[in-house]
Amino acid sequence: MARYTPALLALAPLSIAAIAAVAAPEEPKKALNEAFLAAERAREAMPGAAIFRESCLGCHDGSVPKAPLTRMMAAMMPEAIVQALTSGVMRDVGEALTPDQRIQVAEYLTSPRRYGDAASVKLPMCAPERAAFDYADGHEGVVWGIDGANTRLTSARDAIAAGDLPKLKLKWAFAFPNAQRVRSQPAMIGGAAIMGSHSGRIYALDRETGCVRWTFDAAGEVQTGIVSTPWKKGDRKAKPIIFFGDGIGKVYALDAVTGKQLWSDRPEEHSSAKITAAATLHDNILYVPVSSGEIAAAGNPAYGCCTFRGQVVAYDARSGKKLWHSYTVDVPVSQGQNSAGTEVFGPSGAPVWNTPTVDPKRGLLYFGTGENYSDPGTETSDAIIAIDLKTGKRRWHAQGLAGDVWNMSCGTDKDANCPKNPGPDFDFAAPPILVKLPNGKDILVAGQKSGWAFGIDPDSGEFLWREKLGRGGLLGGIHFSMAADGDRVYVPMADTEVGVKYEGEAKPGINAVDAATGKLLWSFRAPDNCAGRPLCHPGTSGTVTAAPGYVLNGAMDGLLRAHDAKTGKVIWEFDTTKPVPAVNGGEARGGSFGGGAGPIMKDGLLFVSSGYGYAVQAPGNALLVFEVAK
Fold first, then answer.
1. What is d(CA 24, CA 364) in angstroms, rounded to the nearest whole number?
2. Helix/strand/coil (H, E, C) string of 125-179?
3. Domain extent listing, the chain
4. What is d(CA 611, CA 621) in angstroms, rounded to the nearest whole number?
5. How far is it, in rounded angstroms, from Cα 317 to Cα 331?
6. CA dist., res. 19 & res. 24, Å (int)
7. What per-residue string of b and e applies to 504-540 under the rule 16 or more CB within 10 Å gives b?
C-alpha cells in the first residue's frame, strides 16, 4: 500500500511554498522549506494571530460542529470575515474587538490577501455598447459538461475547426487580481465570459474585449464552474440565472444580466463542507455536489474524526427552495476512542468532488464518490452512485475499490485518527460520462484515481469492462475529467511522483478508448519538459474538452495541446506559463492546468483559464482568449 510522506500530509493550508517543497529536487527543496518556515513564522507574528487564538480558536478547532475550521476560513474573503464579526453570525464575539482587530483577525486567516485589496483594484469597466447583455447568445443555457451527459463535446457550431488550430493567436488576456490560482470554468452567455476567482469575485467579462460588465463578491474562493438557466432566444424579458458554489460551502444564484444576488444557501452545516465542483441543472432543478476538507482536520489527534457525509443536494433553481439531500453514507455514530483519548465516529466521508451526470431517459442522476474518512468502510465510497432525479433515492451503486478509508493523519507522527487499515485515497473525482453506442445502447464510462477506467451498465450498475490505463496516484490516475466524441472516450492520466511511491510504470499523458469495450485506441505519453522545475509535472490532472476531430488537453506543466482524435498526434500547443499583457493592466501568467476549469469554445473563440496553484501544482492568474488569425 502507498504511504504518504509527513511533508505532504502536513500541508493543510497548502501554501505555494509548502507544496513546492514536497516535489522539488533536493537543493531547491531545502530553499523552499526554509522560505515556507520563514513565511509561517511571519504569519504567526501578525497581530491577528494572538487575537484569533484568544477569542476564536476554541470554537474553530473542530470543537463546535457548525464553526468553520481554521483552514476552511483561509478560502474566505477578508471582507466576509470582517462582516461576520461586525454584523453577521459572529457579531457577539466581534463586539469585544475593535474595528482594527477584526481586520487583523481576517488578514491573519486569509494571508496573504489583505482587507480592502478587492475594493482598491481598478478594473477596465465596459462602455455601454459593450456592457449590454445579448439575449440571443447562449440561450440554451450552460452546464459544466457542455451537455447533461458530461461528454464535454463542443458542437461544430462553436468549435474551432481542426485545420484552423495552427492559426490560433492570442486575442486578449485577463489577469485575475488578488489571485494565485484559477479553478473556475467560464459560462459563455449574453456575449460575456462569466467566471469565478481565487479572491471570491465573480467577473462578467465582455467576450470580444475583456472589459468588465459587472462583478460580485462571494464569501469564499470560487472554485466551481458557472452554470446558467436557458431562455427563449431573443426574449429581452427573460431572467437568466447563473449558479456557482464557494470554498466555504455556499451555493449562489445571481441575475446573469446584472450580477445581483437572487438567493444563496449553505446546504450542509458541517464545519468542513465546501463546494468544489459545478452543479448541474436539469428541468429547473439544480443538483449541487458537496465535498469536504475534514480529511485535513483529522490530522489533529484531539479532533473527533469524522462526521462529514458526502451528498448531492437538490434545489428549485428559481426560488432556491431546498428539495432534498441524497447522502452517500449513513449517520456517523461513536466508534470508541482513538489513541489520544478522543471520541471518534463513523462511517464518514465519501465526498462528491464531481459534477453529476443527467440521464433523463432513465430518470437518474449519476456521480462519483471519494474515500471514507474513518472506519468502518462503506460500499458507497470510491463508487459510482445512481439516484432518482426527482427524489434523490438511491437506485444502485458500483464500487471501484473496497476498504479505501483514509485521512491526513495517516503516515504522520500524529496518526491517532488514522484508520486501522488505511487505503490509498483513490476517489472517483471525475464525473462519469453517459455514452450512446452505435448499436443504440447506453453505457456509463467512469475513471478513477487508481488509473482504472470502467464501463458500467446504467440500468443495473454492473461492471461491463475495466481497463488499467495508468499507474494511479494521489493526483490521479484519472483525476478531474474525461471527454467523449461518439463512442471514443478520451482519458487523461496524471501519474505523478508526489510524496508517494507506487508500484508500476507511470504513464502520464492522455489515451483514447472504445466506450463499448475499453479497448485502447491510442495513447500519448507526455514528454517531461519540466527540467527539474518545482510544481511541474508532465501528466494531466485537470479537465479536457473534445471537439470534432480533436481533444484539447491542458497538462500540469502548463502546456495546452490539441490532439488528433484518431491518432493522438499533437496538432497544436501553447505554453500558458509565459507572461502576456493583460487588458486590465500588468501581465497574465498561467501555471498548471487542474481541477474543473477546462478549455471552452464559443463561436470560434477559445477560452482557457490556467494556474491551478493547488496540491503541488504551479500557480497562475490567467484567462487567455484565442481566435483564428485571418
1. 45
2. ECCHHHHCCCCCCCCCCECCCCCCCCCCECCCCCCCCHHHHHHEEEEEEEECCCC
3. 6-110, 147-183+431-630
4. 6
5. 27
6. 9
7. eebbbbbbbbbbbebeebbbbbbeeebeebbbbbbbb
Phi/psi for 82 (5° steps) reads -60, -40
What is residue 49's DSSP assignment? H
What is the β-pairing status of strands 442-447 and 452-456? antiparallel
SS3 497: coil
pLDDT value at residue 75: 65
Q: How far apart are CA 532 and CA 289, in angstroms?
A: 37
Q: How do residues 48-79 score in pLDDT, each as one tens digit?
A: 778 787 777 666 666 565 566 676 667 677 87
* DSSP letters for 533-588: -TT--SS--S--EEETTEEEEE-TTSEEEEEETTT--EEEEEETTS-EE-TTSSEE
Whether the CB-CB separation of 384 and 428 falls below 8 Å is answered with: yes
The alpha carbon of residue 263 and the mean position of all alpha carbons in its chain are separated, in whole angstroms, by 22
* 3-class DSSP string for 410-430: CCCCCCCCCCCCCCCCCCCCC
Q: For residue 545, what are the contacts with CB-CB under 8 A and spacing of at least 6?
A: 146, 152, 154, 483, 551, 552, 598, 599, 600, 601
Nearest to 285 by CA among 393, 383, 365: 365
**Is the per-residue pLDDT at 19 higher than 70?**
no
Question: Is the sign of the CA dihedral 414, 416, 422, 425 positive or negative?
Answer: negative
- pLDDT tens-digit readout, 515-539: 999 999 999 999 999 988 888 999 9
- Residue 525 amino acid letter: R
- Cβ burial of 163 (10 Å; 0-12, 13-18, 19+) is exposed
Q: Assess contact for 213 and 255: CB atoms under 8 A.
A: no
Least confident of 53-67, 301-315, 436-450: 53-67
Q: Half-sphere exposure of 399 toward its Cβ, with a 13 Å CA cutoff?
A: 13
Please give the Cα distance from 420 to 423 (Å, whole number).
10
Phi/psi of residue 505, each to 5°?
A: -85, 130
Rg of the Cα atoms in the chain: 23
* The listed CATH number (3.40.50.1860, 1.10.150.20, 2.40.128.630, 3.40.50.1260) that belongs to domain 147-183+431-630: 2.40.128.630
Q: What is the pLDDT of residues 447-469, one digit of tens each?
A: 999 999 999 999 999 999 999 99
Pairing of strands 442-447, 520-525: unpaired
Model pLDDT, residue 16: 35
Gap between the Cα atoms of 91 and 85, Å rounded: 4
Cell of 219: 464569501
DSSP string, 275-308: --S--EEETTEEEEEEEE-HHHHTTSTTS-----
b/e string for 140-151 if b means 16 or more Cβ within 10 A? ebbbbbbbbbbb
The answer to whether the pTM exceeds 0.85 is yes
